[in-house]
Write a structure and sequence with these properties.
The chain is an all-alpha fold and 160 residues long. It has seven helices and no strands. It has one domain. The model has no long low-confidence stretch (mean pLDDT 87).
Length: 160
């Protein structure tokens, strides 16, 4: 319930008009608009990281039938993608810091599952494509959170 209230507050204070959106530059910084132009303005390493991250999340589709953890991962990705995609239609200015907040909210349940059930620690005969994917996925989320927590902090400090 607290997460829903936080999302409502986040969305309400993020609302702006087209003129307000023009105040921000395009890019991947916490207070920059991250859309197709923002992606194009980003350094090559950011584009490569986003491609790798997306491929890792999409690979989870191979495991959703037999592994509940994969459902958490893919579900968090899909919900975050939907929220981020709908935001401009609701009049929200999609800054990278806003996206970081969505990542933290939507991916944390999956990370909790990965870290508490640690399927990536299976060894020997238990080693499988799922254990390898779960290890890579855990790394991807943790590494992303290094940037997401920083950007979310900058963004929240800016809007509040």
């Amino acid at each position: 319930m607290k997460i829903i209230a936080f999302l409502i507050i986040l969305i309400t204070v993020s609302m702006g008009d087209a003129d307000a959106a023009n105040e921000y530059t395009k890019g991947h910084g916490a207070l920059e608009v991250f859309d197709s132009e923002g992606m194009a303005a980003s350094p090559t390493w950011v584009k490569l990281w986003i491609a790798f991250m997306a491929a890792t999340f999409f690979a989870g589709l191979f495991f959703v039938r037999n592994h509940p953890i994969a459902r958490w991962v893919v579900g968090g990705f899909v919900v975050g993608f939907i929220i981020t995609s709908l935001a401009p239609k609701l009049g929200l200015i999609v800054l990278s810091g806003f996206i970081a907040c969505i990542h933290i909210i939507c991916w944390s349940p999956a990370l909790y599952q990965l870290l508490t059930k640690h399927p990536f620690l299976a060894s020997g005969d238990m080693r499988s494509a799922f254990t390898i994917w779960s290890g890579v996925m855990t790394f991807v989320i943790l590494f992303s959170f290094i940037f997401d927590f920083r950007d979310a902090y900058i963004y929240l400090a800016h809007i509040f």
